[in-house]
Each structure stands twice: as structure tokens, then as C-alpha cells.
From TrEMBL:
Pfam families given in the database record: BTAD, Trans_reg_C
Keyword tags: DNA-binding, Transcription, Transcription regulation
Protein's name according to its UniProt entry: Regulatory protein AfsR
Family designation: Belongs to the AfsR/DnrI/RedD regulatory family.
DNA-binding interval(s): 1-104
Gene3D superfamilies: P-loop containing nucleotide triphosphate hydrolases, Tetratricopeptide repeat domain, Winged helix-like DNA-binding domain superfamily/Winged helix DNA-binding domain
SMART domains assigned to the protein according to its UniProt record, in alphabetical order: BTAD, Trans_reg_C
PANTHER family (alphabetical): TRANSCRIPTIONAL REGULATOR REDD, TRANSCRIPTIONAL REGULATOR REDD-RELATED
Encoding gene (name): afsR10
Organism: Nonomuraea coxensis DSM 45129
Domain OmpR/PhoB-type: 1-104
Keyword DNA-binding in record: yes
InterPro entries, per database record: AfsR-DnrI-RedD_regulator, BTAD, OmpR/PhoB-type_DNA-bd, P-loop_NTPase, Sig_transdc_resp-reg_C-effctor, TPR-like_helical_dom_sf, WH-like_DNA-bd_sf
Length: 616
């Protein structure tokens, strides 16, 4: 269904179905202007009857709502949202405790599309993208087919909304003409501005723009006459003198000031677009030393540097807890900043152990892009549309850290445009489209030793290289544990690597050491664990209690008392959530082997039976 309010009222739903009864039209218009928001019964009554409602006002209003539902084929539902048996995207007229809500796809309303394009055009103009601003604002104004609701007799409430829309239209028209003037289109604007100035003789903005266009077209005398005419009109109609803006413009014309000459905007716009200081960068600083990730980083940079016509370049990075997916994404983000100069946006998708609210993520992005809080839409879909409209035309990098699900990502990802997207994920994800997936394995012994050397220095490692190699093995090659172990040694120069290795071995079976020094890894495993269904948590805890780290499906089936096929399904689920690793056999007939990293298994036991001992 489509509702057109910017001009004559028009409703299309499998054909033209515009109501003809005056009060029915007013109810529909008020519900349409506030689509997807509750319109109170009190406001509807005031619109229809002002201060003199009939005795049967409630029943009469319910009748109008019933007639609208019947005429437009709208479903009805009590509550603020549709029931589970209905198509969430289908239009509906919902009854709420305090009024009624017209549930409608936002882009089905021309007034909504106008305001979104208007907001986007202002953003372009603010960013110095003058040509884009002019085109976008022109597209917004094309949606108007005449004065808003020109064939509807509004009541007091609706009249306020009509005046608001007209003021927004007038403001956007000024911005569009301002953009065209910056682009040097003064000759093309003369006819339009002459008509506007005559229709709005006391509108100083239109008069000033007409004066400027005439002056730049070589008609200074005509421009000065516009000023004199406007000054007389303001004195006669309002009893005031021209504003400082108009007076200064007049003075500049008298002195032929160079400030009135057209200025080239293409170079200015380009400079602004490539100036990182004028565009938001929310990337966290590069942190830990990255070792052994050269191939993965090269794959990510190649994917992000591609020129795609089908949509954003998307890279998903995942690995076991502690594998350094976040650090790698931040590193890659800094490497490609020049490729995405318009903005580098960052959001954590996990807040206090729970998935982040997509609406809040989008609001934080819009805020970073300069949208004032008062202009950020309240409804999630409106925020999403505004952000996607911006992203469709900008080279921006979006980093989403700690993503939890495909559904969560699809709510915030742009669907088109030249953006790059970096996602660190707590589970293996397969998004639609051409997505590059990077799986981070644990580091090998050689790379693990390199990492320890970078932190501790070669002399400390050379004292006992075998103990250092043992430490890499005990840390399962996970960068976060290796960094924690190296930091522990760096802060205790009197410790030998042997001493730390023995301490890890002594306390590993209880998890006590992990709770103290390696708490970041415990936190990471716990986050993966806590977002799983309770049944899968139980499976994980029981698998952690098995003495062997290797978990063939036949063994797991016996331990859990389930069929082998179901056991393999559970193993695959845990592997997708990065709590198990899969080791594919070199021989094609060898079945894959599922196994637990010893550190993850130790933490799993801790989650099952927390320990009080803390050796940190």
C-alpha cells in the first residue's frame, strides 16, 4: 500500500482506494503522517471535532477506524505489534491501549521518503559534497505534487502537520538552491528564483538568493532593485528593516566585493572527502603485537581493496576464544583507512554479555556522522533506512566486533554501496553474497615463540628455549594467553620461564590459574558459553569432563546417550560456536576429528565447578 500526502491525498492498494468521506480522509491523513507510531484517541477526537465532540464520540471514532480497515483491506490486531500469524510487513491498522497505529512500510509514505532524502541531502551539503546534495535534495522535492493535502480540509491538529511539512519543504528548497548557486548554476536559477521572490515577497532568503543569482549573471542593477523592492515590502507589511544578511549582501554589491564571486567546489569537496580529520574515525588504536597472521591479513586486505559493483566488501573473521580476531580486524581497519576515507565506524556487538541492540548501534553511527540526536529517528527501521541511504553513496569502513548471529548483523549491515565491512565473530557465519571468511587457527610453535620474543626480548627466550616452546604448547598457541603469559613474565623479571610453565601445569587441572592472570580468556569462553541454549551448555560441560581431548562422535554418543548422528550434530554446533576444533584427516577416508583445546577444556571444567583458589 502507498499513501501520498504531498499534494492531493492518494491511496493505492491494489488500485486507487482513496476514501471520499471528509472525516475519514482526515483520520487517514493523521494516521499516515504518524505511521508506525501511536496516534492517541484524544488527538483524533480533537482533529475531528475540536472542542465539541458528540456524546457518542468513542463509538463514532471506532466506526471510522472500522471503515478504513474495510476500505483499505487492513488487518486489525490488539497491541502495538502484529501477531505471530500475520505477515510482519503487511499494512495494518492496530488498536492500542491509548489510540491507533497505522503499521506501514515507511517507504510506502511519500512524506517519509521526502524527510529521509532531505536529511541525507543536508548531510551531503554539510560534508561539502555539493553536487550530491543538489541531486538528493532535488529528488526529495520531486515527491511533491502540489501543496500538502491540498484537497483535504484539515482540523486543528492536521493543519499543524501540514504547516510543518510546508516549512520543511521550503527549507529544503532553500538548501537545494544554495547548492545550485555554489555549483555556478545562477543563470539556470533566475526563472525559478524570480517566481519564488514574487510569491514570497517577505521571504528574505529567496530575495537574497535572487539578488546573488542576478549579480553573478552580470545584472547588478536588477539585483539592487530587488533589494529596494524587498525593503519597501518589509516596511509596509511588517514594519521592519531588512536583516543583516540582506543588508550586508546589498553593501557587498555596491562595492563589487570579491566575496560574491562564484567559488569552485569540486576541489573543496574532494579535499573534505579525503581529510580524515573531518570524518569520523572510531577505530580503537592498534594494540597487541600480531604474529603469524600475515596470510590472513593479506587475504583481508585483498578482499577490502576489491572494486565491487554488487555491494559492500565484507570480511568475517572468527576463531577460538583468544585467537585475536578483534586485534586482527582493528589492524586491517587501520591498513585500509585510505581506501575508505569518508568514515571508519566501529561498534561492539556484545554489551554486558548480551547482544547489542541494533537500533542503538545504528544511532551511534548516525551520531558519529553528524546527525543531531533530535533528527535520529526513534523507530529502528527508520534509522536503518537513513544509515543505508548514507552508506550507499560513501566509502566508509564499518567494523563490527563480537558479532553473535547472522540476524544481528543483517539488521545493521548496509545492503549496497562502496563500503567495506569487517566482522569479528564468536561463531562461524555464512552471510549471503560474496563474503570473505577468515578462520584463525591457533599459532604454531614457531610463531608462538616469535610472539614471546617480541614481548620479552630474545635474551629471555634464549635462556631456556625448550621451556618457552613448552609454554607455547601449554597456551595452545592462542595469542591472548601468550600475551598474558609474556606480560606476567615481563612484570616478574625474577621468574624463569620454567617457573611459569610448572605453575601452569600444577594449576591447569583446576582452572585456578586461568581465573586470575588469564581472566580475559575465561571471559571470552564464558561469553561464547552463555549465549548458547542451556541444553548445549550441558553438552559442553559434559564433554569437558571427558579425559581425552579428542571427541569422536561414537564416544560422544555413548557419553551423552544419544544416537551417533545427533552426537555429530551437537559437535558441529559447538565447532560452529568456536568451542571445538575440527581436525580433518589427511587421508580422504579418515573421518574428521573433533577436539577440545586443553585451555578451553580447563575453562569448561571451571564453568562447571568454579574454584576459589586464585594464584594471580
Amino acid at each position: 500500500m502507498e499513501i501520498h500526502l504531498l499534494g492531493p491525498l492518494e491511496v493505492r492498494h491494489h488500485g486507487l482506494v482513496t476514501p471520499s468521506a471528509p472525516k475519514l480522509r482526515r483520520v487517514l491523513c493523521l494516521l499516515g503522517i504518524h505511521a508506525n507510531n501511536v496516534v492517541s484517541t484524544e488527538k483524533l477526537i480533537k482533529e475531528l471535532w475540536e472542542e465539541d465532540p458528540p456524546a457518542s464520540v468513542t463509538t463514532t471514532l471506532q466506526t471510522y477506524v472500522y471503515q478504513l480497515r474495510k476500505l483499505l483491506g487492513l488487518r486489525a490486531s490488539n497491541g502495538s505489534s502484529p501477531g505471530p500469524d500475520h505477515d510482519a510487513g503487511a499494512p495494518a491498522l492496530l488498536t492500542t491501549p491509548n489510540g491507533y497505529t497505522l503499521s506501514l512500510a515507511p517507504d510506502a509514505l511519500d512524506a517519509y521518503r521526502f524527510e529521509q532524502l532531505a536529511a541525507l541531502g543536508r548531510l551531503h551539503l554539510k560534508a561539502g559534497e555539493v553536487e550530491r546534495a543538489a541531486d538528493t535534495l532535488r529528488d526529495a522535492l520531486r515527491l511533491w505534487r502540489g501543496p500538502a493535502l491540498v484537497d483535504v480540509t484539515p482540523g486543528a491538529v492536521l493543519q499543524t502537520e501540514v504547516l510543518r511539512l510546508e516549512e520543511v519543504r521550503k527549507n529544503i528548497l532553500e538548501h537545494r538552491i544554495e547548492a545550485d548557486l555554489q555549483l555556478g548554476r545562477h543563470h539556470e536559477l533566475l526563472g525559478e528564483l524570480t517566481g519564488l521572490a514574487l510569491r514570497e515577497p517577505t521571504h528574505e532568503g529567496f530575495q537574497a538568493m535572487l539578488m546573488l543569482a542576478l549579480y553573478r549573471a552580470g545584472r547588478r542593477s536588477d539585483a539592487l532593485r530587488v533589494y529596494q523592492r524587498t525593503r519597501m515590502m518589509l516596511a509596509r507589511e511588517l514594519g521592519v528593516e531588512p536583516s543583516n544578511r540582506l543588508w550586508r549582501l546589498h553593501q557587498d554589491m555596491l562595492t563589487s566585493s570579491r566575496d560574491l564571486d562564484p567559488r569552485p567546489v569540486s576541489t573543496t569537496a574532494k579535499t573534505r572527502l579525503t581529510s580524515a580529520s573531518e570524518h569520523p574515525c572510531q577505530l580503537p588504536p592498534n594494540g597487541r603485537i600480531l604474529v603469524g597472521r600475515d596470510d590472513e591479513l593479506a587475504m583481508m586486505l585483498h578482499a577490502l581493496s576489491a572494486c565491487s559493483r554488487e555491494g559492500p566488501n565484507v570480511v568475517v573473521v572468527s576463531g577460538p576464544p583468544g585467537s585475536g580476531a578483534t586485534s586482527l580486524c582493528i589492524k586491517a581497519g587501520h591498513e585500509v583507512r585510505d581506501r575508505y576515507p569518508d568514515a571508519q565506524l566501529y561498534a561492539g556487538m556484545l554489551k554486558d554479555g548480551d547482544p547489542a541492540n541494533p537500533g542503538e548501534v545504528l544511532a551511534s553511527f548516525l551520531r558519529a556522522l553528524g546527525v543531531p540526536d533530535r533528527r535520529i529517528p526513534a523507530a529502528f527501521e527508520d534509522r536503518r533506512r537513513m544509515f543505508c541511504a548514507w552508506a550507499a553513496e560513501h566509502q566508509a569502513l564499518i567494523v563490527l566486533d563480537d558479532a553473535m548471529s547472522v540476524k544481528q548483523l543483517m539488521q545493521v549491515l548496509p545492503v549496497e554501496g562502496p563500503c567495506g565491512v569487517l566482522i569479528s565473530s564468536r561463531r562461524r557465519m555464512f552471510l549471503p553474497g560474496g563474503v570473505t571468511v577468515v578462520d584463525l587457527p591457533p599459532l604454531g610453535t614457531e610463531d608462538g615463540l616469535r610472539l614471546l620474543t617480541e614481548v620479552l626480548g630474545p635474551e629471555r627466550i634464549a635462556e631456556n628455549p625448550r621451556a618457552a616452546a613448552d609454554l607455547v604448547q601449554l597456551c595452545d598457541g592462542l595469542p591472548s594467553i601468550l600475551h598474558a603469559a609474556a606480560s606476567r613474565l615481563a612484570s616478574r623479571p625474577h621468574w624463569t620461564i620454567d617457573h611459569l610453565v610448572e605453575q601452569v601445569r600444577r594449576t591447569r587441572s583446576t582452572g585456578a590459574f586461568l581465573v586470575g592472570a588469564w581472566s580475559p580468556l575465561v571471559t571470552s569462553v564464558r561469553r561464547n558459553y552463555e549465549v548458547m541454549p542451556e541444553a548445549l551448555r550441558t553438552v559442553f560441560r559434559r564433554l569437558c569432563a571427558i579425559p581425552s581431548p579428542f571427541l569422536p562422535p561414537v564416544l560422544v554418543a555413548a557419553v551423552l546417550g544419544v544416537p551417533e548422528e545427533f552426537a555429530e550434530f551437537l559437535l558441529q554446533e559447538l565447532a560452529n560456536r568456536q568451542l571445538l576444533r575440527i581436525d580433518f584427516g589427511m587421508v580422504p577416508t579418515t573421518p574428521e576429528r573433533y577436539w577440545l583445546l586443553p585451555t578451553v577444556r580447563a575453562i569448561g571444567r571451571y564453568l562447571q565447578a568454579p574454584q576459589d583458589e586464585d594464584l594471580s
